[in-house]
Write a structure and sequence with these properties.
about 35% helix, five-stranded antiparallel beta sheet, CD59, about 20% strand
Length: about 500
């Protein structure tokens, strides 16, 4: 027989106010449709599920207050009626918010603020872009502040003349550079590279070249502008620097470097388009050596110039002027030698030189980075490769070869350092020098024939010995210097011109 031991008060029992159970006594208070309802009764042991926290004994906040107990008549307690709105509920000062309310209150204003900022930035950039596009479309130069620094009748030719004849040779004052840069109207893209783009621009009726660096190349831009403004650097065979500035184009900041414009473009482009005569070859070679010689040369004195090594000399970094001479450009990797302290100023830069033109000591990492002559040797090696490119395009009579890059037949189009090291250092190979450079005679061109035979000169200036010395592991050790190189080229030029007369 089942034994019931617990006695409880009961409001739900018919004919009695008591009940007995083997489970628990229960009392609950609730509000239904605005009316309070109090219930006292018994629940069996089977209804006390799950054990420890039975569903029958749970309260519902704001709806039901329940109390279970386990002694006789223990459910006679008077429970408080649960309030639908507690003093701390709502949005008042004493409110107790749950997680959802807190997220909504915090995220709402933050979202609105971000939205307002985005809209503001968009409107600001849109306005600047419209102004910039309007200027570019109309081709109108912005005259703001121009009259403060430059005479209205000063032309580009006047400006270049002032730069060429200035005492310091270090370029224009910074405020004048900014004025020039901000009054240039860009016309067309004329070149692209890893640094950014090169544009042809207009300033007061004259053409200028504008090299626009991407923001990630800021160090290269700063370094190149710094080198170009070295005192006494200006030379007819080094690209003429005009100005450097950072400009807001309405969307992002552009880094500008403004220089002389040369319509022939780079020596690489020029040799791809045209072949050259012996005289043209000598002019290109002599002017390139002259520019590099001035770059390397140290000028002593209060207005002196440090020695500078290029470190990335190649046909793409040499421009061809209208008169058929060269101008060395792209000084972003250049290093300066401070003779007073015998130190080399190498700017921190992620760029490296062009692998195809790297000297053997650079490829195998044996170059002495503390010795300035090491960098000059590497430049002369690269110049030797440039000379090889020029000589291939010399049309002495009817013979000239198609343009090719150095080592075109030995390495792929974009060689790795390891591939170049294997060819140049391990196999010790160099660009091929055709036999006809040494022995070719042109019977149909008597002045060239006489120059080659009676003067005992081979084609142009490129004897095997001279070229081999320039492309040696270190040209200086082979006895080749820019002074000797200049002398050799100039002698050939003088003899050729003398006979022509």
């Amino acid at each position: 027989m089942r034994r019931y031991a617990l006695r409880c008060n009961c409001t739900e029992c018919l004919g009695t106010d008591q009940c007995v159970t083997d489970g628990a006594c229960i009392a609950s208070t609730s509000v239904i449709e605005g009316q309070e309802r109090h219930v006292r009764t018994c629940i069996t042991r089977d209804q006390l599920q799950p054990p420890g926290q039975p569903f029958y004994c749970l309260s519902a906040e704001g709806l039901l207050n329940t109390h279970c107990c386990y002694t006789d008549y223990c459910n006679s307690v008077n429970l408080k009626v649960p309030s639908v709105t507690k003093p701390g509920d709502g949005l008042g000062p004493g409110a107790k918010w749950g997680p959802v309310e807190l997220v909504a209150v915090i995220a709402g204003p933050v979202f609105l603020l971000c939205l307002l900022l985005i809209v503001g930035v968009f409107l600001f950039h849109h306005h600047h872009q419209r102004v910039y596009s309007h200027r570019q479309r109309l081709g109108v130069e912005d005259p703001s502040c121009d009259h403060l620094y430059l005479a209205k009748d000063k032309t580009l030719q006047d400006l270049i003349f002032d730069l060429s004849t200035s005492g310091s040779g270090s370029g224009l004052p910074l405020f004048v550079q900014r004025t020039v840069a901000r009054t240039i109207v860009l016309q067309e893209v004329i070149g692209k590279g890893r640094f950014g783009e090169v544009w042809r621009g207009k300033w007061r009726g004259g053409d200028v070249a504008v090299k626009i660096f991407s923001s990630r190349e800021e160090r290269s831009w700063f370094r190149e502008a710094e080198i170009y403004q070295t005192i006494m650097l200006r030379h007819e065979n080094i690209l003429g620097f005009i100005a450097a500035d950072n400009k807001d184009n309405g969307t992002w900041t552009q880094l500008w470097l403004v220089s002389d414009y040369h319509e022939h473009g780079s020596l690489f482009d020029y040799l791809n388009r045209y072949s050259v005569t012996i005289e043209g070859m000598i002019k290109l070679a002599l002017s390139a050596a002259s520019g590099l010689g001035h770059l390397h040369m140290e000028i002593l004195g209060t207005q002196g110039k440090p020695g500078i090594a290029h470190r990335d000399l190649k046909s793409k970094n040499i421009l061809v002027k209208k008169n058929g001479t060269c101008a060395i450009a792209d000084l972003g990797l250049a290093v300066r030698h401070e003779s007073a302290t015998d130190t080399i100023d190498i700017a921190p830069n992620q760029r490296v030189g062009t692998k195809r033109y790297m000297a053997p000591e650079v490829l195998d990492e044996t170059i002495n980075m503390k010795h300035f002559d090491s960098f000059k040797c590497a430049d002369i090696y690269a110049l030797g490769l440039v000379y090889w490119e020029i000589a291939r395009r010399c049309n002495a009579g009817v013979i000239h070869e198609e343009y090719q890059l150095p080592y075109y037949d030995l390495v792929p189009s974009d060689p790795s350092i390891e591939e170049m090291r294997k060819v140049v250092c391990e196999q010790k190979l160099r660009p091929n020098v055709p036999n006809w450079w040494q022995s070719y005679e042109v019977s149909s061109c008597p002045h060239i024939h006489c120059l080659l035979v009676s003067r005992k000169m081979k084609l142009g200036i490129f004897s095997s010995r001279l070229f081999s010395e320039m492309c040696a592991c270190c040209p200086a050790k082979a006895g080749i210097t820019l002074f000797r190189l200049n002398s050799t080229v100039f002698t050939a030029h003088f003899q050729h011109m003398s006979f022509s007369q």
